[in-house]
Design a protein that fits this description.
Its cofactor is pyridoxal 5'-phosphate. Pfam families: Aminotran_5. This is Putative pyridoxalphosphate-dependent protein. There is one protein chain. By secondary structure, this protein is an alpha/beta fold. It folds into 2 domains: about 170 residues, Aspartate Aminotransferase, domain 1, CATH 3.90.1150; about 270 residues, 3-Layer(aba) Sandwich (Aspartate Aminotransferase, domain 2). The protein has 14 helices and 17 strands. The strands form 5 sheets. A 7-stranded mixed β-sheet has the order 4-10-9-8-7-5-6, sandwiched between helices. Helix 2 crosses helix 10 and helix 6 runs parallel beside helix 7. The longest helix has 21 residues. The relative contact order is 0.17. Bound molecules: 4'-deoxy-4'-aminopyridoxal-5'-phosphate. The site of 4'-deoxy-4'-aminopyridoxal-5'-phosphate has 13 residues, from helix 4 and helix 5.
């Protein structure tokens, strides 16, 4: 605990959990070093304080006449405005509160107009890769793994040109198209060329959704400036671990589609017709965000996201990015000093990235390695396939193991790794955690 707090002054984003003691197999206890921010980042102290201050005033949202219900409703709707400001939304954009990035992308898949063609790189996280093919009447074009940002842009350009060349189907229009792309990879941490991909998409008349699950906690996401049509992200990766996420962007497809969830809150007027035992329900649905937010919303989750957004903005991304860059350089340098370590990269060693680094260690099974970091050093990293099987397959050059969706396949010690180890951090990470990690790997 002493070591951790001694370096706190260097961290511009105080987070919870730095004094948590965990047992070591070698005896004794050590403070937990959370280096798995890409899975879930610890809560910001500020988020926790804001939520705790609100907790006694908790009330139902959009449903109660009482004072605390009014207060909670205001808090919920103001959270929407704070998130819109954080994302740099255009005036007509909607900000829908969801459960997570996965939920946000499934919502977008559900509202796509019939006949939409979706384009997605095979390297995407499963949350970006899989929702589209669930929708009937939607076709998916999978794009092969690019080995540079420029190749990504060229690949998309070619695919969209070919789609346009197909021409209108049966006398109709070619239909709408949507590109789904990640801002920063959850496996390599590499930044994708969002602005260029957006230009290409729009030049071909396609729309684009940005999976900002890994980008938003590390870099500003400016919807208006980058011109993306939608952005999806999760609170629990943005230092607000209370089960909420966001889909923000263009209102038209959201307004025109059937509600994602049918129920109270989404409907404005409901009447049942019954004649001789045969009935139906006439429903007038809201055209605001409420259309897709049926049921009692997660006000704490929304408020926590808004609190984290404000904390990040107030801390200033310039300083946060600079601090994180130092940490990335230190981890890269430390890993380079270990000849058995191979860092995984799609775009090349020096590609710009966020604080997410995956690697394998020659002669080690990645799961055993990650388990040893935890048991012997109190360091929490992630091992496995990171819900991005095709990408990990490309990076490792082989078939990843088959032990569940995001799981870690077993291999005997000394066998070639079928999965990888991922260390991830943010501007809230103290130097001591990074130094302990490097020492442990060595
Ligand atoms: N996209 C990316 C790039 C991610 O890293 C993740 C989480 N690992 C997701 C989507 C899904 O986020 P969630 O689990 O919060 O839905």
């Amino acid at each position: 605990a002493t070591a951790a707090s001694a370096t706190d002054t260097r961290s511009p984003l105080p987070v919870l959990g730095r004094d948590v003691l965990v047992p070591l197999v070698t005896g004794g206890e050590v403070t937990y070093a959370a280096l798995d921010y890409a899975a879930s980042a610890p809560a910001l102290q500020r988020v926790w304080d804001d939520v705790a201050a609100y907790a006694p005033y908790y009330g139902s949202v959009h449903r109660g006449a009482g004072y605390l219900s009014q207060l909670s409703t205001d808090l919920f709707e103001n959270s929407r405005k704070d998130v819109a400001a954080f994302l740099g939304c255009r005036p007509d954009d909607q900000v829908v509160f969801t459960r997570s990035t996965t939920d946000s992308l499934n919502l977008l898949a559900a509202v796509l107009p019939h006949g939409t063609r979706v384009f997605v790189f095979e390297t995407e996280h499963h949350a970006s890769l899989l929702p589209w093919q669930q929708r009937e009447g939607v076709e998916v074009g999978f794009l092969s793994a690019p080995r540079s940002p420029r190749e990504a842009v060229e690949t998309l350009d070619r695919a969209l040109s070919a789609w346009r060349a197909e021409g209108p189907a049966e006398g109709g229009s070619a239909g709408p198209a949507l590109v789904c792309v990640t801002g920063a990879s959850n496996v390599t941490g590499e930044l994708w060329p969002v602005r260029e991909l957006t230009e290409v998409a729009h030049a071909h008349g396609a729309r684009i959704v940005l999976d900002a699950a890994q980008l938003a906690p590390h870099h500003p996401v400016d919807i208006a400036a980058s011109d993306v049509d939608w952005v999806a992200f999760s609170g629990h990766k943005l230092y607000a671990p209370f089960g909420a996420g966001v889909l923000a962007g263009r209102a038209d497809w959201l307004r025109e589609a059937r509600p994602y969830l049918a129920g109270g809150g989404a409907s404005r007027k409901v009447a049942v017709r019954v004649r001789e035992g045969v009935g139906g329900v006439d429903v007038e649905w809201h055209t605001t965000e409420a259309r897709h937010e049926a049921g009692s919303p997660n006000v704490i989750g929304a408020y926590a996201i808004a609190s984290a957004c404000k904390a990040l903005t107030e801390a200033g991304f310039e300083g946060l990015v600079a601090r994180e860059r130092e940490l990335i350089a230190r981890v890269r340098e430390g890993l380079t000093e270990v000849p058995e370590v191979r860092v995984l990269s799609l775009f090349g060693e020096d590609a710009p990235r966020v604080g997410v680094i995956s690697f394998v260690v020659e002669g080690w099974n990645s799961s055993h390695f990650a388990a040893a970091l935890s048991a012997e050093y109190g360091i929490g990293v992630r091992d496995g396939l990171f819900c991005a099987h095709p990408l990990v397959r490309t990076l490792l050059g082989g078939e990843p193991g088959d032990q569940g969706e995001c799981g870690a396949p077993e291999a005997a010690p000394g066998e070639r790794s079928l999965n990888a180890i991922r260390v991830s951090f943010g501007a809230g990470t103290p130097d001591e955690h990074v130094e302990r990690f490097i020492g442990a790997v060595k």
